[in-house]
User: Fold these one by one.
Assistant:
Number 1:
Amino acid sequence: MILTSTVVMFGLMYLNTYAWEHVFFSETRAWMALLMGATMAVIMLGFMSGMYRNRTANLAILAGARLLAAKRMTRSSG
């Protein structure tokens, strides 16, 4: 679900493009979509923690989201 939403968010970022000639791959848009996906994973897991009883899987999802967000933050400041 998170992966699908992240891909959709990446595509939606191109709706702000005025001409087809301006549509090209943007690394910034890709990183922002991944950051939004990681943030969404943490928020959704927080709200639906009662639905997912597997503590190991929950911690793995949170750790992966945190690593992805940390990678994005260090990339933007470096």
Number 2:
Amino acid sequence: MSDSDAGRELFWSVAEPHLEAGVLVRGTIMGRPCVRTADGEFVAVPHSGTGRLVVRLPEERVAALSAEGVGEPWGPGVRVFKGWMAVHGSDPAVWSSVIAEAVAAAE
């Protein structure tokens, strides 16, 4: 199984409780499957090439979590998007926590 496949599988397993609770809905962003709030706000997506978790958080949280080594600012190509972060590693507990934080920030 590739890193991308493993990342997608982990992503949907971590997102599933939020989907079942109706907190998140499936959507797309940049042509890729993602999760959004019921109001349509983007929350998270598995990166198609690496399988890493990409989330949308307030810029100050991206900076703080990056400083803690949880992830790094992210953007497609060379441009970094404000408030977007790619999470390092594939720890389900970290992914779940970061997605929960992104949900709270989007509300």
Number 3:
Amino acid sequence: MPIIWVAGTTWDESAAKVRTPDGSSVAVGGDVSGGGGQVSEVGTVYGEEVADRVAKCSDGGDKAVYISGASTA
């Protein structure tokens, strides 16, 4: 399932890492711990732009995992 990261999270293309708002980072395949859950009908909660991105990442699905707080290992 696609992940909806906490606001302020960015993708570092050159390092192939996700950078969280606290400045930590995690590479693809790395470990992350945090709070969150699963959301259905992403468009209702996050808007159509996010729903379109989720659909592209999940072969048309409308479910995603969201992270409300994260720390990387």
